[in-house]
Amino acid sequence: MSIKEALRIAQERDTDLVEVAPGANPPVCRLMDYGKYLYEAQKRDRDARKSQTKVEVKEIRLRPKTGEHDIGYKLKQARTFLSRGAKVKVRLRFRGREVTHPEVALDLMTHIAKELEDISIVEQRPSKEGMTMLMVLAPNK
């Protein structure tokens, strides 16, 4: 069908002639209300964004010399965050000569992972980055 004939039919039906597949030979066109099509596409995108869930990352900061009671309190906080569906980043900061004993920090990290293993999985194993050690826990499905 020629372009002139297609445009005439589109005008008769009070619609738009929209090129759907320009790469095809011959190019494929469709008769539609283009404004309505754009509106529905935007509406679909909006609904898709609404149904998405953004994962929140909460952070818990400790030191190698943190006391047992304080660690218990931080574990309680982490348990709350994980139960709400947030990931928990456990950051252990070293000060001064504490950095020469990473095994103390690693023991603390494994203790935390063990305490929270019923509701979380270790997403990122403990890794040392300068004066900090990081571990990421994600909630169980």
List keywords for this structure.
141 residues; alpha+beta; Ubiquitin-like (UB roll); Translation Initiation Factor IF3; four-stranded mixed beta sheet; two-stranded antiparallel ribbon; 41% helix; 30% strand
Please provide a written account of the structure.
This protein has 141 residues and is of the alpha+beta class. It folds into 2 domains: 3-51, Ubiquitin-like (UB roll), CATH 3.10.20; 57-139, Translation initiation factor 3 (IF-3), C-terminal domain (Translation Initiation Factor IF3, 2-Layer Sandwich). 41% of the residues lie in helices and 30% in strands. The chain is built from 4 helices and 6 strands, in the order H-E-E-H-E-H-E-H-E-E. It has helices spanning 3-12, 34-51, 68-83, 102-115, and strands spanning 16-21, 28-32, 57-62, 87-93, 120-129, 132-139. The strands form 2 sheets. A 4-stranded mixed β-sheet has the order 3-4-6-5, covered by helices on one side. Strands 1-2 form a two-stranded antiparallel sheet. A hairpin with a 6-residue loop joins strand 1 (16-21) and strand 2 (28-32). It starts with a helix and ends with a strand.
